[in-house]
Amino acid sequence: MTTYQAYFSKTDHKRILPPSWGHGPFPAKLEQNLALLDPNHMITMGSGTPNKDFFSVKNITVNHSIDLHYQKDAKDSHINSFYIGEKVKQSDVQKADSKIEELFEYADNTFGSYSTIDLVKKLTKKFEIFKDYKSNNFSEEDYDYCVTSGTSASSYYLCQLLLDDTKTILVEELTFTVIMGNVSMTGANVVPFNVNLNANDENGENPIDTKYLENLLKNWSTIHPKKPFPLVFYTIPVQNPTGLVQKIQHKREIYDILKKYKILVMEDDPYGYLTLTDDLKSNCDFNDKASFESQKQIYFSALKKTGSYLSIDTEGLVIRCESFSKIFGTGLRLGFIIGPKKIIDRVKNYIECSTREISGLSMTVFNQCCQGMDKLLCQNLKTNDIEQLDGWVQWCINLCVLHRHKQKVLYKELTENPVYASKRLFTCIKPTFGMFLFIGLNLNEFKSEALKSPQALTEAMQYMDYKLLENNLDAIIGTRLIVDINHSFKKSGFIRVTTSQIKNDKELAEAARRICTSIEQFFDEYLTKKQPYPVLL
């Protein structure tokens, strides 16, 4: 039998995504228990993939033929029609200003169609990504744009461009593990830097431990004598998995440290438009322009408090990655990069040599929906006197309000449960942006044995995962969202959940109950005679 090993490249073994979504291995008794559960009653809180409530597109209709146009005109062809999603009246359908060629032919450029790049630039201006930008060395004109198939693809291109086995990248100690897979392929060194889990709006502390970061860079040759000095700093400003948010003053503090050493900032920001501010009204169905304008200003005001590293980039060190996955549709695989032209030129080269054209269908659907949202907003407000892309702003506000509602319900249900309120077995970081809720286990007080070593913590969190699964709930445990277990094991005793797949308040309440039950069972059973099965790693 052919093994195929001889055919694989020397670097193939590095192309592995850390298993943040995986589970197991399982002891036999647990496997039997899990097999008895009804998969239809599983509550999914691990994936950030939004459910259909978060989709603007309600229907896709396709008319197609087996006839070639040079043989017959379309009007003479037999047409098969189908639609996916909700049924719409034919009278509601309007002709788009895009040509069919834009969907099915190669794009104008491998780095995005001209129309989509133009739209991205307009969105960047609309949301004031370069707000208050001031630099004697750089201007907005020194930056360029390219469209990608999402921030995962963007980070892949950038890692391939910037990293190799002679380079070092700094990564938040708790992070979205796709970046680790992309870095692994390059052979680069990865060094974690500390996050500050005590940061919140009340104390105003930086979610990044800047004292640790400054000391790390200042004393690099002593702390990491065998590793090259870092050239890239990777950060998720609306942090995944913690939900902590870097405000613009925090970013300025971090940037001032990094620019002293000319370290590039890779800003990965797929959640930055999802503010959970209480100032937005719960009822977003505005029917007058004044109400909409008021909410728009509240929304923009909330976003400006966080801003982008680009707005403070005086030295041309920032590369910003954005995605439409969390605010439009994950399956479209659409995002973009903004960065210094010389870097973006090289990114375009990587796109040219790898994935090439972004899906014309994805770009055209997004472009047309942005135009259509303006028409819909005009209908709602009964006026044509709106700014371009105000409809997109309204859509983003709607998303924020829905995410806020779900997060509030879950947070309330969790913190009112006796497992939290009376027993204090866990803590929650109250979310103010994004879609994640961070649940920290109170191991230090009630299960300190788990904090004795990285191995002990890994085993404890594996058992925590067992309990969640036994209660028919899918979430992600902390040990699957870290860069280095040896560095961060004392911060890894957490569960990350998201509400984006949850259908309604009733399911949110049930999810909270299952989480609390799982945590209570973990503390009651683990490392006691009540523990029904061993932990396997």
TrEMBL record:
One of its GO terms (biological process) is tyrosine biosynthetic process. Pfam families: Aminotran_1_2. Its cofactor is pyridoxal 5'-phosphate. The keyword Transferase applies. InterPro entries: Aminotransferase_I/II_large, Class-I_PLP-dep_aminotransf, PyrdxlP-dep_Trfase, PyrdxlP-dep_Trfase_major. Residues 102-515 form the Aminotransferase class I/classII large domain. Keywords: Aminotransferase, Pyridoxal phosphate, Transferase. Gene3D superfamilies: Type I PLP-dependent aspartate aminotransferase-like (Major domain) (3.40.640.10). One of its GO terms (molecular function) is 2-aminoadipate transaminase activity. The keyword Transferase applies. PANTHER family: AMINOTRANSFERASE, AROMATIC AMINO ACID AMINOTRANSFERASE 2. Belongs to the class-I pyridoxal-phosphate-dependent aminotransferase family. This is Aromatic amino acid aminotransferase 2.
